[in-house]
């Protein structure tokens, strides 16, 4: 139920005043006390919205129907994003908690902005949740902090921290990014992650929580199983997934790289791609966490550009673009 607080409050106030005046003329103080009690109840209802939850008046949090999967196929859609949906995407805001590999997305976004100001981002990196001021021209605004699962979803204190951020009515989307946990968690632990995000989403109806896979690790069976568990859950339950591992595993021509050519989140196929397609790699980040590799090739950071492009596609889709 959507309640327009100012309008309802005005109606309630007018009605209560009229009743108080009526009963005052008839000298019925008992009824006046009843009117006051009713006023308190109704004003409380108006203030808190449905079921006592904090009201969320975010005007751009349009519900996304069904599952949305952002993977390597999303990268090729980057050039097709209509400008009006880029503008709409910049009206959305993100609460982003990440471990080390998750910084790759931010590095890629910032490098894209340097090349083309159309893709402006504004990032606030502080221990207390908040957003940078609105930008002119507009920019995608992100709150970012480097915390582990216990500060987002894996403990009750972490869940409460996320709830408190949700109650600020600043953010439309929430995202947690892994380091190497998906390479060691058992399926029970992965299910806790899935259940916790679903629980938060059910508590805050106007918000969406974006799920993510773990980064590649050279092809371990544990990672493969855990990433499949996340993908299957997202598809079955109509969630949003940023498939971090899938984006790392394909070059722009669609060639898949299995355990050969993939290590600890490093893009070992990227240098060869950049040698053959130098124009693709002129605007990659100068540094991009865990992507330099043992040979130190700067071209390994090319994967961070791909992740940023897929991220913009995701935000445009969440803003209403159909992807075509």
Q: Enter the CATH topology name of the largest domain.
A: Rossmann fold
Described by strand count, sense and barrel closure, the largest sheet is: 7 strands, parallel
Order of SSEs: HHEHHEHEEHEHEHEHHH
Query: Which architecture of the largest domain would the CATH scheme give at its second level?
Result: 3-Layer(aba) Sandwich
Compute the number of structural domains.
2
How many β-strand stretches? 7
Amount of beta strand: 5-15%
List low-pLDDT spans.
Answer: 1-29, 31-57
CATH classification class of the largest domain: Alpha Beta
Give a nutshell description of this structure.
With 324 residues, the protein is α/β, with parallel strands linked by helices. It has eleven helices and seven strands. It has two domains: 5-52; 68-318, Rossmann fold (3-Layer(aba) Sandwich), CATH 3.40.50.
Outline the secondary-structure elements.
Layout: H1 5-25, H2 29-48, E1 68-70, H3 72-75, H4 83-89, E2 93-98, H5 103-115, E3 121-125, E4 140-146, H6 156-166, E5 173-177, H7 187-203, E6 208-212, H8 221-237, E7 240-242, H9 244-248, H10 270-276, H11 302-318
């Amino acid at each position: 139920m959507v309640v327009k607080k100012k309008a309802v409050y005005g109606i309630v106030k007018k009605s209560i005043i009229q009743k108080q005046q009526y009963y005052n003329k008839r000298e019925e103080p008992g009824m006046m006390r009843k009117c006051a009690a009713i006023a308190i109840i109704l004003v409380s209802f108006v203030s808190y919205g449905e079921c006592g939850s904090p009201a969320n008046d975010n005007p751009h949090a349009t519900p996304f129907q069904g599952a949305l999967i952002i993977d390597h196929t999303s990268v090729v859609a980057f050039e097709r994003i209509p400008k009006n949906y880029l503008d709409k995407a910049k009206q959305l805001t993100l609460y982003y908690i990440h471990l080390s590999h998750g910084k790759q997305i931010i590095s890629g976004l910032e490098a894209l902005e340097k090349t083309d100001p159309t893709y402006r981002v504004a990032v606030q990196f502080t221990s207390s949740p908040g957003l940078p001021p609105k930008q002119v021209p507009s920019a995608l605004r992100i709150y970012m902090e480097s915390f582990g699962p216990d500060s987002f979803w894996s403990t009750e204190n972490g869940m409460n921290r996320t709830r408190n951020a949700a109650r600020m009515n600043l953010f439309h989307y929430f995202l947690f990014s892994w380091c190497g946990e998906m390479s060691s968690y058992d399926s029970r632990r992965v299910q806790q992650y899935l259940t916790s995000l679903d629980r938060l989403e059910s508590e805050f109806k106007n918000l969406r929580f974006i799920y993510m896979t773990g980064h590649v690790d050279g092809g371990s069976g544990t990672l493969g199983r855990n990433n499949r568990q996340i993908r299957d859950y997202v598809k079955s339950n109509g969630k949003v997934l940023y498939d971090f591992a899938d984006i790392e595993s394909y070059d722009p021509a669609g060639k898949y790289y299995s355990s050969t050519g993939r290590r600890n989140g490093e893009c070992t196929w990227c240098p060869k791609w950049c040698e053959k397609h130098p124009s693709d790699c002129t605007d990659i980040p100068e540094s991009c966490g865990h992507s330099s590799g043992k040979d130190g090739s700067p071209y390994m950071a090319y994967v961070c550009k791909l992740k940023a492009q897929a991220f913009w596609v995701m935000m445009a889709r969440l803003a209403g673009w159909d992807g075509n």
